[in-house]
Amino acid sequence: MATPKSKREAAQTVVEPRETESGDGKRAGRAEENPFWVFSLAVYGRDGTAPACLALQDSKGLDVNLLLFCCWAGAAGRPLKPAELEDLIAAVKPWRTEIIEPLRSLRRMLGMHGAFEGASDTLLNQLKSAELESEAVQQRMLHECLPLEPGEASVKIAAENLKTYVKLLSVDCDSAVTADLAAVLRGAFPSLAPLEAVWTLV
Fold first, then answer.
1. Which long-range contacts (CB under 8 A, 24 or more apart) does 38-44 make?
2. Number of domains comprising the chain
3. Tens digit of pLDDT for each residue in 157-171?
4. 10: helix, strand or coil
C-alpha cells in the first residue's frame, strides 16, 4: 500500500476521492462509500502499522489489503474460513499483480532517481495517487466479494483471521512475522497492549 506523505494527506485521500471506471465501463464509485477503506486508512495511519504491513508485504509476499481485511472482519466479529480467504485471494490476484504491483514498482524506481528533480516529483506524486486509487479499487473488490454485517468486535477473531491468511500462504510465523502481525493487530485495536497482541497470535 502506498504510504501518503502524512496522515492529513491520507485523510484527504478519503475525503475527496475520485470516481473511477471499472473494466466493464461502470462507475466504480467513491472510496468514502466503502467503510472498509475508511477503516483501513484509520488503521494504516496509526503508529507502527504501515512499517509492519510493508515488512510483511516485501519480505513475505502478503497482501496489505488482505491483512487489513482480516482485521476488518475481526472488528465486525466475523471469523474468516480458509475457503473464504482463498476465494478473496483469487478474486483480487489479477488486479494486484497486473495493476497494483507494476504501479508500486514504477513508484519505487522513480523514487530512486534524483535526476530531473522537478519532473520526477510531479510524476512521483501522480504515481502515488494512481497507486492509492488502485488500492481503493482492490478494497472495494474485497468488500463486495464478502460484505460484512456489523457485529461485536473481537481481537481474538481478528488474530485468528490473520493466522489463517498467513497459513494459507505457507508463511512461517517466526518471531519477526509475529511481531509485525501484532503491530497490525494493534493498529486495528489501539487499546491492545503490545505483549497482549503477541500473546493473542501465539
1. 38/14, 39/68, 39/72, 39/75, 40/65, 40/68, 40/72, 40/139, 41/10, 41/11, 41/13, 41/14, 43/68, 43/71, 43/184, 43/187, 43/188, 44/1, 44/10, 44/68, 44/187
2. 1
3. 999 999 999 999 999
4. helix
For residue 2, the model assigns a pLDDT of: 64
Would residue 163 count as lying in a domain? yes
pLDDT tier at 16, thresholds 50, 70, 90: very low
pLDDT score for 93: 97
Among candidate residues 176, 158, 106, the one with its CA nearest the CA of residue 134: 106
User: What is the C-alpha separation between 111 and 120, in angstroms, rounded?
Assistant: 8
**Residue 142 belongs to domain spanning:** 33-147+155-201
Mind listing the pLDDT tens digit for each residue in 115-160? 556 667 788 889 999 999 999 999 999 999 999 988 999 999 999 9
Task: Show contacts of 52-59: CB within 8 Å, 24+ apart.
Answer: 52/179, 52/180, 52/181, 52/182, 52/183, 52/184, 52/187, 53/1, 53/180, 53/184, 54/1, 54/3, 55/176, 55/180, 56/177, 56/180, 56/181, 56/184, 57/1, 59/176
